[in-house]
Amino acid sequence: MSKSTLTRRGVLRTGAVAGAGVALPTIFTSSSASAFTNEPTGGSVTLGFNVPQTGPYADEGADELRAFELAVEHLNGGGDGGMLNTFSSKTLDGTGILGKKVEFVTGDTQTKSDAARASAKSMIEKDGAVMISGGSSSGVAVAVQGLCQEAGVIFMAGLTHSNDTTGKDKKANGFRHFFNAYMSGAALAPVLAKQYGTDRKAYHLTADYTWGWTQEESIKAATEALGWETVNTVKTPLAQTDFSSYIAPVLNSGADVLILNHYGGNMVNSLTNAVQFGLRDKLVNDKNFEIVVPLYSRLMARGAGENVKGIFGSTNWHWSLQDEGSKAFVQSFGTKYGFPPSQAAHTCYVQTLLYADAVQRAGSFNPCEVAAALEGFEFDGLGNGPTLYRADDHQCFKDVLVVRGKENPESEFDLLEVVEVTPRAQVEYAPDHPMFAGGSLGSCNPGA
Amino acid sequence: MDAIILQILNGLDKGSAYALIALGLTLIFGTLGVVNFAHGALFMIGAFCAVTLNRILTMSHQVVDESRKDFLGNPLKVDVPYVNDWFGEAAGAAIIDWSVPLAILFSIPVMIAIGVIMERGLIKHFYRRPHADQILVTFGLAIVLQEIIKYFYGANPIPTPAPDVFRGSFDFGVLLGFDPNVIIYPYWRLVYFGFAALIVGAVFAFLQFTTFGMVVRAGMADRETVGLLGINIDRRFTIMFGLAAAVAGLAGVMYAPINSPNYHMGMDFLVLSFVVVVVGGMGSLPGAVLAGFVLGVLESFASMNEIKSILPGIDQIIIYLVAIIILLTRPRGLMGRKGVMED
User: Fold this and answer.
1) How far apart are CA B135 and CA A151, in angstroms?
2) How confident is the model at residue A26 (pLDDT cuts 50, 70, 90)?
3) How many contacts does A have with B, using Cβ atoms within 8 A?
4) Quick check: A318 and A401 in contact, CB under 8 A?
5) In chain A, which residue's Cα lies nearest the Cα of B162?
6) B328: distance to nearest CA of chain A, Å?
7) Cross-strand pairs, A155
8) Are the C-beta atoms of B291 and B200 separated by less than 8 Å?
């Protein structure tokens, strides 16, 4: 039987030799080949911001771009620092990311999957982007997330609300800070029950694509669990501009609530049409007829004008929140641009900070190390209270806001009021929940 | 029965917009022989005339209200419209409330001017060129106009409400002996339908009962012979282009409260309006109007759940399906002149 004696010096010596041995191949290869896609070698690092610059979501894209520019400014030590001052993680110090100055390139998704993939590809291959972020559609997010997985870069999704993004289409290289349709249903249903009772008959109009389907499934399940009956679910074409022929039969269906699973221009027009048809002035089943818009954004509310008054919905974030992080972001954004940020701007700003922080904590731009730093990461100070980036599906879990169209707005920005901040525990679900089943994260791809 | 009446009403309303746009398209094709793909953009500019007048009427100066705070915590600056200063608060509010009907007066000279400039500045150079060239240049023009509007007004829809008195809906069913709430219809859509009927009637009367209209109709039938009679037909056709632009513009102005105007609304209507023109018969004014209403009603019926449960997706293809059937059986369209599109 041999005798082994461990000494401090012996351990250090063995460790040094072993470490040199492990590092040797990297030392020899680092000058000739990258360890991962677009490994930054100079004094700067490039991020790719892929937003709709043309098409119906161009205003939302413009707001996302403003947020990205602000985030880059703060990361490089400019401006007032915004949420860097309130972020619970203190690794970012205004000297860029890992000492490299942050630069960015932009692409136009046009809210079309093909165009979004092409612009993301170009930013990765031609501009050397090490991370892609942004977007205003679940279809686009799923497409670009797939591309980033193949290319070996991190995708920090922008505005994407479909369950599928972190459900059946989830990817190891993709991360979503934005909330999802399930969370909207879970947050909204109890408030609807409190406001309108548990004996209601609902009629759904649903945009006929991935987001609409999961939105309808989620809100239907949540309201039925409370005792609501679903009278009918009708899919409407995405290109529809006038919804009168879909809305006209609603009153005659026996329903006393209309749920509009629409977003963007679809929502603006369907809500406007529903109000024009006088639905909100009617009494059905001895109850006031009500309309619900499960996913709200301030930019959409502006498009629908006075029609949003008193109508409930959910949102990821709102500029009127009074936590320190939200106040710092609104102050910073409002001072620079003259108006408050949208939820799309907030989520894109936060995603950029979270990526930068993960790189800093990992000590590397290698997407697999960045992903590991993001998985299971708990943080606070970026709005929405304490938040977890769940490792199982790369979905953020945080408080969700239930909002209502404001009756007496004081300005063009003051359109929604927060009626409830739904605690994170109420919107959490198991990673294998049936609405998120099918598909797997797979393994991280570092690319080159 | 009630569902059928409801969808007919909806169809008439959709058909009104199709018919007005198709009427202008047909006027231009019939007089100048130009296939104008920028016509949807003229409809969109009409809607933005309503937006613009609304913005002019709501131009304001700011008064600081120390008792309230803005989103950054500074004293709130409250906007007070100049019309309130000039006419008093009640009269000022009424003027703003009626901005869409007032925009009709505002838009007529603007749209005629845009139409005349378009025709003289660009389209006249393409009279002798193939239809493909005309389509390309007018489509390009539509995109340019669209981008200009987006630059100044943004991509977000802009709510442009109808006057208060026309908001809400009318219970048509009660009038016909049905239960309440079975057939309801918004007041403004009724106004839109009435307005469309008025415009269509005015255009027909103008062409039918005025000397100017008679000469234009003669020019549509045989341009060269009318020219040989010493009549400056080109000038009259330029005026007709301006009128066609005004018709599209008026259709847009009155449509603004139905769906908030946005920069791509013209494109949404353009393709459907072309189908309407082709189905009605290229160059036929009554054909364009008839096809507009027929296709509008058919589209409404196709979106009924009862129909969709038998034929899923029919609501998205019905117009094109009808167009194919009509063109296969009657290439000149419902009321087209013999020979047009038949060779």
Assistant:
1) 41
2) very low
3) 127
4) yes
5) A276
6) 27
7) A132, A174
8) no
Nearest to B10 among A232, A245, A307 (CB): A245
Chain A residues within an 8 Å CB radius of B159: 272, 302-307
The Cα–Cα gap between A168 and A158 comes to 18
Give the amino acid at A164: D
Does the CB of B161 have a partner CB in chain A at under 8 Å? yes
User: Please, which contacts does B236-239 make with residues 24 or more away whose CB atoms are closer than 8 Å?
Assistant: B236/B212, B237/B31, B237/B32, B237/B119, B238/B116, B238/B119, B238/B120, B238/B124, B239/B116, B239/B212
Are A340 and B71 an interchain contact pair (Cβ–Cβ within 8 Å)? yes
Q: Which residues of A touch B155 (CB under 8 A)?
A: 55-59, 62
Structure tokens, A45: 């690092």
| Selection from A408-417, B215-224, B329-338 with the highest mean pLDDT | A408-417
- From B36, B25, B100, select the one nearest B261 (Cα to Cα): B100
Average pLDDT over residues A151-162: 97
List of chain A residues whose C-beta atoms are within 8 Å of the C-beta of residue B184: 248, 251, 277-278, 282
Residue with tokens 């109007």: B289
Yes or no, beta carbons of B262 and A56 under 8 Å apart = yes
DSSP states of A127-187 as a string?
S--SEEEE-S-HHHHHHHHHHHHHHT-EEEE-S---GGGGTTT--TTEEE-S--HHHHHHH
Alpha helices in B210-313 (DSSP H): 211-221, 223-228, 233-255, 265-280, 285-302, 305-310
Of B76, B168, B303, the CB nearest to A245: B303
Q: How far is A165 from chain B (nearest CA, A)?
A: 25
Q: How far apart are CA A127 and CA A131, in angstroms?
A: 11
- Would you place residue A9 in the very low, low, confident or very high pLDDT band (cuts 50, 70, 90)? low
Chain B residue whose CA is closest to A283: B181
Residue A46 β-bridge partners: A103
Query: B127 near B34, Cβ under 8 Å?
Result: yes
- The closest of B203, B214, B216, B209 to B32, measured between CA atoms, is B216
Q: What is the mean pLDDT of residues B242-260?
A: 94
Interface contact A278-B184, CB threshold 8 A: yes
Q: Answer yes or no: do A410 and B169 touch at CB < 8 A.
A: no
Place of tokens 């404001």: A406
Q: Is B110 within 8 Å of B42 (Cβ atoms)?
A: no
CB A403 within 8 A of CB A321: no
**Cβ–Cβ of B2/A234 closer than 8 Å?**
no
| Chain A residues touching B181 at Cβ < 8 A | 251-252, 282, 284
pLDDT band at A13 (very low <50, low <70, confident <90, very high): low
Q: Coil, helix or strand for A259?
A: strand
- Pairing relationship of beta strands A257-261 and A290-295 according to DSSP bridges: parallel
Q: Which residues in chain A touch residue B3, judged by CB atoms under 8 angstroms apart?
A: 249, 252
Q: Give the Cβ contact number of residue A11 at 10 Å.
A: 10
In chain B, the residue whose alpha carbon lies closest to the alpha carbon of A58 is B155
